[in-house]
Amino acid sequence: MLERKPIEEILDIYETLPKKITDLFWSDDVANRIKKIESSFGLTEKQGDALTGITAYLLLGILSPLSLEKTIKGELNLEENIAEKITDDYFRLLVFPLKPLLRHLYEENEFKRREGETPSEKEERERRGGVNDTYREPIE
Questions:
Q1: Which spans in the chain are helix H?
Q2: Contacts 24+ apart (CB under 8 A), 42-45
């Protein structure tokens, strides 16, 4: 589950972020990506709000990408397999495209999709579009 922070602490963290990251909080592009995930999986409004909160904590540097699947499962109250699919889409639509900006907040090893993923597995997954899908053939 997501460890809630007091609003004062969140505002203090927000004030220290680079402008490029603070702009993401108000970005229509980020909102549309979250909405796309919501509609793809038929999430309720409450689950969509939880996903938006998770995104805010990710952008603040409070929630590591390594913790996303567990947090999504707990906050959205989902079964394991659905949480895994949503997390895959979340990485593909939000984490990987924003990775250059988020490098300011997270260590390189925190951008792994799953714990224990080797660098070569990560590289292969990113080359395929962020989803670790053994059924897809690589496009050469």
A1: 7-16, 19-24, 28-41, 45-60, 68-76, 80-90, 96-102, 119-127
A2: 43/76, 43/86
Q: What is the pLDDT of residues 61-77, one digit of tens each?
A: 999 888 899 999 999 99
Cβ–Cβ < 8 Å for 49, 94: no
* pLDDT digits 0-9 by tens, 115-125: 555 556 666 66
> Which tokens sit at 96?
């990987």
Pick the closest to residue 55 from 9, 15, 86 (CA basis). 86
Measured CA to CA, the distance from residue 30 to residue 86 in angstroms comes to: 16
User: What φ, ψ does residue 6 adopt, rounded to 5°?
Assistant: -65, 145
Stated pTM of the model? 0.75
Question: Per residue in 8-37, pLDDT tens?
Answer: 999 999 999 999 999 999 999 999 999 999
> What is the residue extent of each domain of the chain?
7-127
pLDDT given for residue 116 in this prediction: 56
CB contact at 8 A, 69 and 89: no
